[in-house]
Amino acid sequence: MTGTVKRRLYALAATAVLLVSPLLALDGDIGMHDPSTVVVHDGKFYAYGTGNGLPISVSDDGWTWRRAGTLMQAVPGGRPGADVLARGGNNTWAPDLIRSGDKYFVYYSAPGTQPKAAIGLLIGKTLDPSSPDYKWEDGGPVVWSDGVEDSNAIDPGVFRDPSNGSLWLTYGSYFGYIRLVELNPKTGTRLSPERKPINVAINGEASIMIFRDGWYYLLVTHGSCCAGANSSYNIRMGRAKKVTGPFIDNVGIDMLQGGGKLFLGSGGRYVGPGHFGLLDLGEGVQKFSCHYEADLDRGGISVLDIRPLLWRDGWPVAGENFKEGTYEIESVRTGTALELAVQGAPVGGLRGRGGRGGAGAAVVTPIPAQDAAQVSSNWPAGPVDVRMAPYMLQAQQKWTVTPVANVGGYPGSPYFKITIAGTDRALTATDDQELAVLATFSGGPEQLWRIDQLTDGTYRVMPKTAPNSSAPLALSAIGSSTPTLARFTPDSDRQRWFFKAP
Amino acid sequence: MSDRTLLPSLVLVSVLAGVVVAAHAQDTAAGRLPRAGSRGGPAPSLVRPTSSAKPPNADGFLQRWLLLEPIAVSGQLTDSAVQTAVKTASVPDPFTAIPRDGDPVSVGNTKVAWHAVDTTGYNVNLYHFAYALNRPTSNVLFWAVTIVNAPRELSGVRLAIGSNAASVWWVNGKEVIGLYNERQTVVDDGVSKRLTLKQGANVIRAAIVNAGGHTDFCARFLDDQDRPLKGITVSVTSSSTTKGSAK
User: Fold this and answer.
1) Rounded CA separation A106/A142 (Å)
2) What is the rounded distance in angstroms from the CA atom of residue B106 to the CA atom of residue B111?
3) A127: which of A41, A367, A415, B28 fits an S-S bond (Cβ 3.0–4.6 Å)?
4) How far apart are CA A243 and CA A161, in angstroms?
5) How far apart are CA A336 and CA A141, in angstroms?
6) B contact set with A (CB within 8 A)
7) Per-residue pLDDT tens for B73-90?
8) What is the set of domains in chain B, with CATH numbers?
9) What's the complex ipTM?
10) Percent of chain A scored above 90 by pLDDT?
11) Which CATH architecture has domain A7-318?
12) What fold characterizes domain A325-346+370-500?
């Protein structure tokens, strides 16, 4: 099953859509198919996808995206080079890119009549189309398939081995194998063209590798694409101790024999995820990009998304962007919960506990949950400190987290406001880089919060701006009863939080 | 409270420089800790200071304190009850008049006295303290005072405390921590906002309210990297502070 024939049509249809709801996957013009790895350059986020000339998507914050022309507009002749056209064809699909030294290498699919196809190389110094240095040079075909061999040379995925700096390219789509070749980090072309490519997997496309803790992970998209909500795309993976494999899944099956542990399938309002890309933001914060074949909230078009990347038992796990709701916010470090610093009242009021064995079957009346309306009459009207305490299901310990529209965001999510449930009392970063709860939400950057899920599944919580501080600060448990704002330290639990059902 | 209000006391006490605490304590029988026995006997973890000042221990804990014998309060530990207890059991603010070992105090009809102690642990065991004096340990409020001597102005530091049970803390007359409800002493449970220790003497005051059972506290300062603060000394007289208190 190839499924790539219809890609371009779906991708073009998607580009016409502009949605701004903060509740959806990303914001702005995010129609995209076969996205590249998302790359950060000079503070902006760039992604490239299938389409005529390889359309460029750019974002200032990783949340709101816009189109910025095509890569081929900056290539001499405006199309793949002659050798690429000769080895493959005139289509431009599914690019991937990497920075190597002072250059960017873009690898793109140039299929003719599949499986006759080639992967071309573009070389440039900057991703910023407004830069005077912006241009792309044709680097020729890197790998190709002749239409007969067990290979379909499309869907490049480029990978730098952090253990030694070597550069590798995986490619392929259903016809035959997913293949691996080593690249020259200086030129972007094959390091040893005379060497036969290494077969590493079958039954998929959109392959790419990542590395962690001595393991190489090969992620490959299985299933069918390009049929909207009828697409069965899903991302699967195996791992190996060597970059060349063998890549074995969680039940011991080689990906060359069809193995593959599921990383991400359809879920929620999204059908058919594919084309994994790692977005490592540093300090232990990792995200991944993908597209969905159909976003049901956007009429079933194909869209880009960015989500948290988690790790569990030696395997990557697809996290979910933060969902609005009411939560207990609990410190991983201390096990105590964030609360408004007011005198609490027991849920249900003061009452005896009965005998040590309970009061027996006669007393079975349920006690309703405590909300702010029941107990807030004694709370001070103005600013109130924030502290932490054992979670007791009390109203001052329940926080409602709500996305805020039109204030920007960060990779994968909009900013949120964090208020005491049932009130407009808003968590605020103060002028002295501490915390307070103000009586109302003003919309200021000190009341907008970024909530990143970390690789262990816990969360980092950061104000969009902390007054009088140029440093990014995170909610930090400095004591069992005391929160503050401090620099995020990845090797500590201080800035890690659970969001639990209240 | 301004620094100026502290100065007269410091100058007065500085006249007594060279008179170590132990010697002074022997002259104030009203406040003397028992030296032997069980109830009314020694406080196993508390000893008399024998020097004019000492550094915090390796983990930064302040081990030298003036403790006031317990004052009866309701023993309620809610925010409002503890704040009320602090007011009803109030004593002269040590920021304006630093008590001395053995000084008597009247709180209502109760006569109590200050005791200078060094703790041998990271924490100050108030149960040991009260038990050794044959005083109640339940439904009581303890006042504790110490002086932290800073070699220079230290900004961005925090007072970090743990207490059993509720407690309220002041640095140089300003309330910086309030911990309420039943609780056990946990290192760095309550932590102040960032504050500045001035060069010279800084007065730390605490009120610890216990409802029943064990009672103790621990306290240290953290630097701007949240590490135990180094370079300070702790005393219960201002003799060691006069050099830096001119600021």
Assistant:
1) 11
2) 5
3) A41
4) 8
5) 58
6) 78-80, 158, 160, 162, 179-181, 186, 188-194, 222, 226
7) 998 999 999 999 999 998
8) 3-17+47-240 (2.60.120)
9) 0.83
10) 91
11) 5 Propeller (2.115)
12) Trefoil (Acidic Fibroblast Growth Factor, subunit A) (2.80.10)
